[in-house]
Amino acid sequence: MVDPARARKLAKRIGTIVATAIDHEIKDPRLQFVTITDTKVTADLHDATVYYTVMGADLDTEPDMATAAVGLEKAKGVLRSKVGAGTGVRFTPTLTFVADTVPDTARHMEELLARARAADEKVARIAADATPAGDPDPYREPRAEDADDSDVDTPSSSRRAD
Questions:
Q1: What are phi and psi of 49, to 5 degrees?
Q2: At what angle do helices 65-87 and 4-20 cross, to 10 degrees?
């Protein structure tokens, strides 16, 4: 087992090396819109999982995840060589590329929140014009204005004489 802090540092370094290599050194057009989001390394430092996401060419274009995955698999050997040269560890970890689902999950959560806000606004509009059914407080007894106060027991009059 390796110190977890060392594994985190190595994971961060691997992510930086892979992102820089994809951006500057590998000339594959399939990797043009790939962004490395996170990297995890196993406790024995032998396997690294690199999480990535793919952006579209513009806001209206859907990202091509399948083409990016093929491009990353093709570049895996070169990227592993770059990681080995850049980290200086005894055993260069194997690289596994996994599509990051966090952006999709965040987008889905935003859609759910927007739907909930719209439903809340609709309920608030309906409630603003609504009137309660029946009396305002049906459980409250009306108080008689002319009631005698002598009928009410006070703490001093309710004492027992011993």
A1: -105, 120
A2: 120
Residue type (1 letter), 21: A
3-state secondary structure the chain: CCCHHHHHHHHHHHHHHHHHHHHHHCCCHHHCCEEEEEEEECCCCCEEEEEEEECCCCCCCCCCHHHHHHHHHHHHHHHHHHHHHHHCCCCCCEEEEEECCHHHHHHHHHHHHHHHHHHHHHHHHHHHHCCCCCCCCCCCCCCCCCCCHHHCCCCCCCCCCC
The sign of the torsion formed by the CA atoms of 59, 60, 61, 63 equals positive
Q: Taking the CB of residue 112, how many other CB atoms lie within 10 A of it?
A: 10
What's the full length of the chain, in residues?
162
Site of tokens 């889905």: 108
- Lookup: tokens for 36: 């490395």
- The tens-digit pLDDT sequence of the chain (162 residues) is 678 888 899 999 999 999 999 999 998 898 988 999 999 999 899 999 999 999 877 777 788 889 999 999 999 999 999 999 999 888 999 999 999 888 788 889 999 999 999 999 999 998 888 877 776 676 777 677 755 555 555 555 555 554
